[in-house]
Amino acid sequence: MNSIQELFQKKDKNLLSIYFTCGYPELNDTVQVISELEKSGVDFIEVGLPYSDPLADGPTIQDSSQKALENGVNLDIIFEQLLAIKDTNKTPLVLMGYLNQMLKYGEDKFCQKVVDCGIDTLILPDLPMVEFENHYKDLFEKYGLTNVFLITPHTSDERIRKIDSYSKAFIYVVASASITGAKGDISNNQVTYFERIKNMNLKSKLIIGFGISDKQTFNTACEYANGTIIGSAFIKSLGKNGVDKIDDFINPIIS
After folding, report:
1. 129 to each of 92, 109, 160, 163, 166, how far by Cα in Å?
2. Rounded CA separation 140/146 (Å)
3. Which pLDDT tens digit goes with each residue over 117-161?
4. Is 46 a catalytic residue?
5. Quick check: 179 and 152 in contact, CB under 8 A?
6. What is the pLDDT of residues 50-68, one digit of tens each?
7. Following DSSP, what letter does each residue of 89-108 receive, concatenated?
8. Helix (H, G, I), strand (E, B) or coil at 240
């Protein structure tokens, strides 16, 4: 059983996950950000690997990644920072990056480093399903890692059921067919999409992300899923108010 499955055994409603970018706002903020998020009561944390050529990230996360790279962050530094809190952090961490980062670093070396840091769940949005089936499924199983797949409003029922069969943590329900970032209230079309997924009665837990930014959108999304992920809105707050004010962002959402 992976750390996310263990989490769902304790709590399966109204989960809040926060995405943050390693190395932002400052190079060595990773440990403190995780510590403050844990103290604030978030359920699990998405550890974002800064990347210069993202596919799914909107302008806010792209900007944070650019600043993190300018700060000098790289995978070795990130793994070193995560290793330092392996024995003290009790909140499950999910590593979110891109397949190209893993390929450049070396697949086995990357997987081993992730495991060494006490992380067992990955999100690689650009990992094609056929590549997962032909190679990475076995590689991840070798290291005890679980991959999280994303679905969008355009994902077919057939593909969703295949993803459901492979999922061992949760299915990442992308709230709209667009990049990350707040887009206001959740629309009727999005609710229709959420209802469609919920009514498929999948075995996997559902976590909604992209466009979730405040208590209102958090509460609405949680009516149709087990929880949500907030990224861009948190990054904006972090950049404006600093690491010491993380509580001020989290408390109004979960109170």
Report:
1. 25, 22, 11, 9, 10
2. 6
3. 999 999 999 999 999 999 999 999 999 999 999 999 999 999 999
4. yes
5. no
6. 987 766 667 788 899 999 9
7. --S-EEEE--HHHHHHH-HH
8. helix
One-letter amino acid for residue 133 of the chain: E
What's the number of CA atoms in the CB half-sphere (13 Å) around residue 10?
9
The two structure tokens encoding residue 16: 């809040």
> Does the pLDDT at position 178 exceed 90?
no
Catalytic residue among 29, 36, 38, 46: 46
75 or 54: whose pLDDT is higher?
A: 75
User: Does the bond joining 25 to the residue before it have cis omega, within 30 degrees of 0?
Assistant: yes
| Cα torsion angle, 182, 96, 224, 160, sign | positive
- With a CB cutoff of 8 Å and minimum separation 6, the contacts of 141 are none
Q: Helix or strand or coil: residue 12? A: coil
Q: Which residue has the higher pLDDT, 38 or 61?
A: 38
Q: What is the pLDDT of residues 92-123, one digit of tens each?
A: 999 999 999 999 999 999 999 999 999 999 99
- pTM of the shown model: 0.93
Q: State which amino acid sits at residue 122.
A: L
The question of whether 157 is a catalytic residue gets the answer no
Residue found under tokens 């844990």: 38
- Which is the catalytic residue, given 36, 38, 43, 57? 57
Q: Which of 153, 103, 108 is nearest to 128 (CA)?
A: 103
Q: Is the pLDDT of residue 183 over 70?
A: no
Indicate the residue type of 57.
D
